Amino acid sequence: MSIPRYLFLIMVAIGHSQLLADETAPSSPSAEIRPFTVHVEDAVLDDLKYRLDHARWPDQIEGSGWEYGVDVAYMKQLVEYWRTDYDWRSHEQLLNAFPQFKTKIDGLDLHFLHVKSSRENAMPLVLVHGWPGSVYEFYKIIPLLTEPKNQEAPAFHIVCPSLPGFGFSQMPHERGWNSQRMAEVFAKLMARLGYSNYGAQGGDWGSGIVRWLASNDGNHCSGAHSNFPPGGRPSSEPMRGVTREEVARAERRFAELSDHKGYSSIQGTRPLTLGYGLNDSPVGLAAWIVDKFWAWSDHGGKLEKSFTKDELLTNVMIYWVTDSAPSSVRIYFESRHRLPRPKSMTPFERSNRVAPLGFALYPKEINVPPRAWVERNVDGQFAHWTEMPRGGHFAALETPALLAEDIRKFFGSLPKRNPDADN
Fold it and tell me: Which of 86, 136, 139, 332 is catalytic?
């Protein structure tokens, strides 16, 4: 199958960024930052096809749809497409149209995209995914941020790392790699790339990571934007400044997801036990991930109103071809158990200032907290709030134009900083 036209146009749009990256990429394999190309061996794809051809299907109560989990009829349709029409090589080519690199930080070989804008005054911006996402989530939004059509709009140099243990980044082999320690590695990555002043954006686990950067690397991180606001209910006077509409909205979304919370407890307590199934069955892995895309997006009952089959499968494929499903879910265990700092980590000097935070609230996010709660949760860093008309958890993939506009709005509103004055 040839590359779809929409993918080709995106590749053309960022082609000049590949040239810019080639000019600065180290030529020596021993250099700190090494160019990286995605290439999956044919044997891995042949093995996948065999497993898909021999899938064992569960039974389902007639007429139950998605009530008990992912609908079997839908999964059979998706897997049939995976077996017969899906073309990994075209999506591998799309990924490789983005300049990609690896560098070793704190004992881990970290994978990242580094896409530069043609604008000299572009702002460095680190984009951070979560689970069950990947750097692929950002393939549509990157061109919108690096080369906005409006010449007056802010442009960005994009750095998009794969979380440690996710996709093409190395799997940690020590205890203690929670999301905060991953955030520290990303601060070190931005410093290694020579960015003394940068912005940060993320959702899901990426939300906590970019908030950590704003609070702990504020001398260099000028601000952080997130599409996943912290939803904790304040312990005192929780209804202060909260409207009835906000309460009703939060309660409605909580009820919608009441049967969708078990994954977090399992991944936070028994990730290895779960990992056997995720790593051995591509259908099982796809169902576990697709279930989250179903629950957390704004599709009105038809998942492919929000994501194409190719998009769903490419995200799954990144986990499958790298064997990273078991290591990725460990982030829940590590972040829940607060284990000691990994011995491989080098020191990090926290900043003496904090940076402002901006939030975009999507109606089908996992939680939709009242604005007043978010303001109190971030304790004085709150600087921006937008309530989106549509969309859900995977905003960069589902509503890229809306998210890109809000990112530009937030960072465009921040005062210019002289990073040298902070050091």
Answer: 332
Q: Where are the domains of the chain?
A: 5-58+65-422
393 is catalytic: yes
Catalytic residue chosen out of the listed positions 204, 291, 310, 406: 204
Three-state DSSP at 278 gives helix
Burial class (CB in 10 A: 0-12, 13-18, 19+), 124: buried
Instruction: Report the CATH number of the 5-58+65-422 domain.
Output: 3.40.50.1820
> Please, what are the averages of pLDDT over each run of 10 residues along the chain (423 residues)?
43 40 37 91 98 98 96 98 98 98 97 97 97 98 97 96 98 97 98 97 98 98 97 90 96 96 97 98 98 98 98 98 98 96 96 96 97 94 97 98 98 78 51
Smallest Cα–Cα separation from 165: which of 149, 182, 180, 148? 182
| CA dist., res. 388 & res. 298, Å (int) | 12
Residue 59 known to be catalytic: no
Q: Give the DSSP letter string of 220-265.
A: TEEEEEESS---PPPSS-TTTT--HHHHHHHHHHHHHTTTS-HHHH
Catalytic option among 195, 310, 393, 406: 393
Active site residue 85: no
